[in-house]
Amino acid sequence: MSCKTFFCVDAHTCGNPVRVVCGGAPLLKGANMSEKRQHFLKEFDWIRRGLMFEPRGHDMMSGSIVFQPSSDDYDVSILFIETSGCLPMCGHGTIGTVTVLIEKEIVKPKKEGELRLETPAGLVVATYKRDEKDRVKSVKIVNIPSFLHSSNLEVESSVLGKLSVDVAYGGNFYAIIDPQENFSGIENFKASELISMSKELRDKLNEKYNFVHPENETICGLSHIEWTGKIIDETSTARNAVFYGDKAIDRSPCGTGTSARMAQWFSQGKLNKGDEFIHESFIGSKFIGRIEDEVQLGTYKAIIPSIEGWAKITGLNTITIDDDDPYAHGFQV
Ligand code: PYC
């Protein structure tokens, strides 16, 4: 019998959970976080399932495991864990992780106000501001190059009928479904209805098309569906409801989903370098996005997006995974 202990700080970013594993991480092999992610998936995925699935987690659970950096170029390395797997990049997860690492003094930044993060998708630079109580007030992350992968792909929904979707990359591949003849916008749907329609569309799009990152073939497959619709607050630019895992709608505006959507708008000429993009989530929480730069990524005209948001710590959580427990490695219903 063996019992493993994980020292976690639980938080949420704009309403979406982030469980940050600060102690108990396995030793991973690999020259960088992308290679270490492959090693984790092969040998240690039970840790993700145990910490994310019921009975220790839930459908929306998401988080990160913190590692020593692979090189002096970084302050810290991060592996993202979620109900769906190990994402190459997670925006709300990064904002929550930075808040935890700074507020709980788990990592001492080389430069005050900045953390250089090694993620499986590449370098992400985070800057943070403190409030008068010295807590982290907000975190801005400069994300990896994001691009529109394809436009107007056709997919048939058994509920809605024929849909036209764009696919964009912002750290994960997103099918963006904007209002159109057969879809009137997220304001007319419950979260449970969006969830029940999303999985079919993701499966069909992955069956029909190939989504592979031009520089890293381990980043492949469409993982998220980003439904859009009318804003609630008139100061916002746009609103979304992002489906992930098997049953989750992101409570935050989704950092990688916001990056993907900014890349889509950039390609459509609706957003330029320097423009701000205030993105509202399904529950009305907000991220401030911005196009920091334009770059070429293979054949794609990409953007470097930044995302700014806030997170709050909700508690300290020492979690055990005991082989003796029939649900040691979690379950999904
Ligand atoms: O914020 O990038 C994000 C994210 C991905 C999945 C859920 N949130």
UniProtKB/TrEMBL annotation:
GO MF term set: 4-hydroxyproline epimerase activity
InterPro entries per the UniProt record, alphabetical: Pro_racemase_fam
Pfam families reported in the protein's UniProt record: Pro_racemase (PF05544)
Protein family per UniProt: Belongs to the proline racemase family.
PANTHER family: BIFUNCTIONAL TRANS-3-HYDROXY-L-PROLINE DEHYDRATASE_2-EPIMERASE, TRANS-3-HYDROXY-L-PROLINE DEHYDRATASE
Entry protein name: Hydroxyproline-2-epimerase
